[in-house]
Amino acid sequence: MKMSASEICQVLKEGELEKRSDNLLQFWRRKTCVLTTDSLNIYADTQKRSKGKELKLQSIKKVDCVERTGKFVYFTIVTTDNKEIDFRCSGEENCWNAVITMALIDYQNRKAIEDFKTRQDTESASPGQQERRMARAP
């Protein structure tokens, strides 16, 4: 499945999100985030967008622990190496957890289709496979 550069880099959501810091005090830090079809980019500086972290969707296992309080929606992104990253966003206008979850599902579906097509192409390329398939048919 070949995707064009515009499909790969399509921006799904852009805005501010708060990330809990990894240090001992665990302060909430405001970050500028850009969600694309293949990654979540997290920038500390809203103006320059330099020195950002890229969290690829392939390294995200799930979006977990969604909790709504009066002002915020809290959620956790669990990576494939079981690292947990905590986020929060204001509940009124931002549904970051839902958009990230839908982007993750879309990515996983595209990957599954790509894997299926690759497996199908590999099976059709091997000459004995067609004969075995015909032998099973009634």
UniProtKB/TrEMBL annotation:
Instruction: Please report the organism this UniProt entry assigns to the protein.
Output: Monopterus albus
Membrane topology of this protein: Peripheral membrane protein
Q: Which family does it belong to?
A: Belongs to the PHLDA2 family.
What is this protein for, i.e. what is its function? Plays a role in regulating placenta growth. May act via its PH domain that competes with other PH domain-containing proteins, thereby preventing their binding to membrane lipids.
Q: Where is this region: Disordered?
A: 116-138
Protein name listed in UniProt: Pleckstrin homology-like domain family A member 2
GO BP terms, alphabetized = positive regulation of apoptotic process
Subcellular locations according to the entry = Cytoplasm; Membrane
Q: Which GO terms describe its cellular component?
A: cytoplasm; membrane
Any idea where the PH domain is? 10-105
Q: Name one GO molecular function term.
A: phosphatidylinositol phosphate binding
Task: Give the UniProt keywords, A-Z.
Answer: Cytoplasm, Membrane
Could you tell me which PROSITE patterns the record lists for this protein? PH_DOMAIN
The top of its lineage is: Eukaryota, Metazoa, Chordata, Craniata, Vertebrata
